[in-house]
Structure formats: C-alpha cells, structure tokens
Amino acid sequence: MEHVEKVIDEKKQGKALVTEHKKGNNKKLFIESYGCQMNMNDSEIVASILAEQGFNTTQTLEDADLVLVNTCSIREKAETTVRNRLQKYNHAKKHNPKMKVGVLGCMAERLKEKFLEEEKIVDLVVGPDAYRDLPNLIEEVDAGRDAVNVILSKEETYADVSPVRLNSNGVSAFVSITRGCDNMCTFCVVPFTRGRERSRDPKSIIEEIRSMQEKNFKEITLLGQNVDSYLWYGGGLKKDFKKASELAQATAVNFAQLLDMCATEFPKMRFRFSTSNPQDMTLDVIHVMAKHENICKYIHLPVQSGSNNMLKAMNRQHTREEYMELVDNIYKIVPEMALSQDMIAGFCGETEEDHLDTLDMMNYVKYSFGFMFAYSERPGTLAAKKMEDDVPLAIKKRRLQEIIDLQQEHSLYRAKEHVGKIQEVLIEGTSKKNENEWKGRNTQNTVVVFPKEHYKMGDFVNVKIEDCTSTTLKGIAVGYSENN
Could you tell me which residue ranges the Radical SAM core domain spans (predicted)? Predict the structure, then answer.
C-alpha cells in the first residue's frame, strides 16, 4: 500500500549519496542509508563533515577509500539488508585492500561488539551522536586500530553543520529540529539508539531554512522523532527543563512558536512536519496551522492501536478516548486537515476485541494514508525483555490485511473529497507513470498528477482535480497560484 508520508521511503533505501565535488579532495567516500528520513538527513551531515577531511562522494563502491552504511534498528528487514550489504563491501575489499568499512547510526549503537569483535566485518562503528568524531576515528583506523564511538550525547544536535543536500529533488528538503526521544514506547528501540530528547536552537533552524530558500527550495519538512515535544530553553535535555532558570523557562520556545516563526519568516515557502506524537500534540499547534496558509494541512499522527489495553501495554501516554478527542478538535479547528496513521497488528497480548477496537478507531478517524505493520519483536526494546510475542503469525497477517483493506477504503473516500476542487500543488518532479505529466502534492500531502504544459519543477500551480485513485489525484492545471 503506497503511503506518501516520508518516514521510510523505499526508493531511497540504500541509494548511494551523491554530493558536489570539492576541488582538491582526493579521497572517495561511498555512503548508503537505510531506515527513516532522520538517517537520510544524518548521512548528509556525515558527507559534510568528511568533505572537510578530503572526501568526495562516489557511486562506485569499488573505487571507495571509505565505505559507510547508515543503519536502522526499527525493522528487521533493514537489519537483514545491511548485513547483506556488509558482505558485499567485504567482497569489494578483497579487490581493494585499502578500503575501510564503517557502520553508522542506530544499528551501530546496538550491535557494536558483534560487528567489530565477533564478526570482524567492519573497521569502525559510529553512533548517531558521534559523527563529529569521524575524523579522529578514521585516523585510528588508518593507524590499524578498531575505532568505536557510540556514546549518546546530551547536547549534540549538529546545529552548526550544514548538510549537503544533493539527493533531494531540489524543491523540498528536511530540516532536523530535535534528536532522540523520551517516550519509552515498549515496541521501540529509538530511545536506546538515539538517546534522550534534545532540541536545536531556533536561530540555527531559521538560518538553515534561509540558506535553503536562497537555493530555491520551496518546501521544508521540520523533522524529529517527536516534533511536538520540541522545546528550546538554551540547550540541554528536554527532561531537565524543570531545572532551568526562571528566565530560561519564561523565554523558552515550544513547537507551536517555532512553527509560527518559520511560517511568518518565510511566507512563500511551504512547511510540513513529522513525526507527531498524540500525547505531546497541543491545540496551539493546530491554531498556528489554521493561521498560516503556508503550513500544510496534514499531520502524521501515529496511534499504533485503537485499544486501550494495547496502548497501555505499548506505554503510549494517551488513551483511545483522548486520541479521539484530539482528532475531534483537529477537525473542528481545521476541517480540511488530513491525518495519517501508524498501526501495529498483533502486538503482545492483542485479542480479537483489541483488533476490532483498532478497526473502529480507523472508521472514526478515516485516515487519508497509513503505515501498517505486523508486530515483530526488536531486540533491546522493553517489549522484547518483558512481554511475550504471543499472537500467532497467521493471525497477525490476517489482522494486518484487514487494517490495510480498511485503510484503502478510507484513502479512496478521502481522495474523492478532492475531486471537483481547485487545489494548489507544488511540482516536485515527473510522474512515474507518464513522462508528459508532472507530479506534486497538495496541502493534504496527496499526490497529484497533471499534464506538464509550460509549467516547471518548483512551480506552485492551481490544479482542478478531475479524477482519483486511492493514492493519486488526477487533474489539469488552471494557472499559477498566488505563491509563485
């Protein structure tokens, strides 16, 4: 089932990063990323740090002096893929003995001993907060020593590193605003692999967006494991806010204020954000979205389950009723808002009644899109340590299929709501199915395709929607929008 929310973009998995070549750099870096958009973003930060150390990127594995794979621990599939890639790198290493191989990111944090000592398949292991240490670590490796830094930091936000963005479409980009996560959901490994939550200085965020505007980017997605709990009070961990001085607390910037600042400062740019957490989402964020035309009317609002028993077992800090009340308020303040979900089918102890609660919740909200998975245990999580993965695979698969089928119905229902309307679309590229058509997204994040005519990439165009499938709107351009 296609989902437009850029959490895990299958097309970008394992694609070698390409960046502009810096004159005088004579070493070659091959870097691949798996997992979430945070990982893609981190690879851009790594490329930026290593460009200062004489590395240009290459797409040819065999030529590389340094091969890095940025990893993910969320899904088993990503881990299996990374292991297969490491075997391929080692094969290339036989032909190019000077090549060094390193593992970055979340899996590095979790499997450091295994990779270096037991399997001896990599030369360096670098966790998500240690990318600045890469130059020293590479020196260690060059001197013939194993290099590891997986220390999770309280401060690191890479606020002053300008990511090199050349894998993007040149129209939309991601800007990280927080790192880490404080929510200890029992199914999730992120707090253990990315550390506790800290936010980035709003000034550095605004500066990064300004530099994106100068490069003609038209749409920014503010990115974090949990953007709603963004809180800047001068630096440090979110959980230490209570210990800050009165002045620091009084002048702190929360997510609603940051969003307001961005939209006000850059009225011609579009803003999105991801990912939201229902327990941290406040209505002032929704009021800011209502106030600004240039904040897209779309929220990815993962619920994971519609059952209170499951929400409790998952350690989600909200109930089914609180979530539904939040949804009611969102639709009341912004009637045209599109919502999308994450759902886990077959979590530990899930009964048929719990599953029916999930389907009921979906019927209540009628999400525009969804990300749906059968539960699979991730080592290192609280669920893996303390709960029994007791729902048989066949039942998980059936429940997942029922969730997918229902989501497809709702996606079509939501897509049909757009038919007959004129909507602003930002052109992001050529349609996959027809090279004579552009594709872009409307404010609700639904993909729109229409004939190219004289329009070009990066234009804001008004499109009359004439037809739809459950994932795509089809229409015809009627002119440029005011934003252009």
Answer: 167-414
| Whether 279 contacts 318, CB under 8 Å | yes
Distance CA 105, CA 87 (A): 18
181 is in an annotated binding site: yes
Closest CA to 40 of 7, 82, 67: 7
Q: Which of 395, 331, 329, 405 is nearest to 362 (CA)?
A: 405
The CB density around residue 457, as the number of other CB atoms within 10 Å, is: 16
Crossing angle (nearest 10°) for helices 255-265 and 202-214: 30
The H-assigned helical ranges of 266-351 are: 283-291, 308-313, 320-333
d(CA 323, CA 96): 55
Give the pLDDT score at 317: 93
188 is in an annotated binding site: yes
DSSP 161-183: ------SS-SSEEEEE-EES---
- Rounded to whole angstroms, the Cα distance separating 44 from 31 reads 9
Q: Taking the CB of residue 190, how many other CB atoms lie within 10 A of it?
A: 23
**In sequence order, what E strands does 355-471 have?**
369-374, 422-430, 437-441, 447-451, 460-468
Q: Which of 382, 344, 40, 350 is nearest to 183 (CA)?
A: 382
Model pTM greater than 0.90?
A: no
Q: Is 185 marked within a binding site?
A: yes
pLDDT averaged over consecutive 10-residue blocks of the chain (484 residues)? 41 63 84 83 88 90 91 75 87 88 85 74 86 87 80 73 65 88 86 84 93 92 91 86 86 94 96 92 96 96 97 96 97 97 96 98 97 89 94 96 96 97 96 94 97 95 97 96 83
| Tokens matching residue 292 | 């600004």
Query: Dihedral sign, CA of 317, 319, 322, 324?
Result: positive
Look at residue 2 in the predicted model and tell me its pLDDT: 36
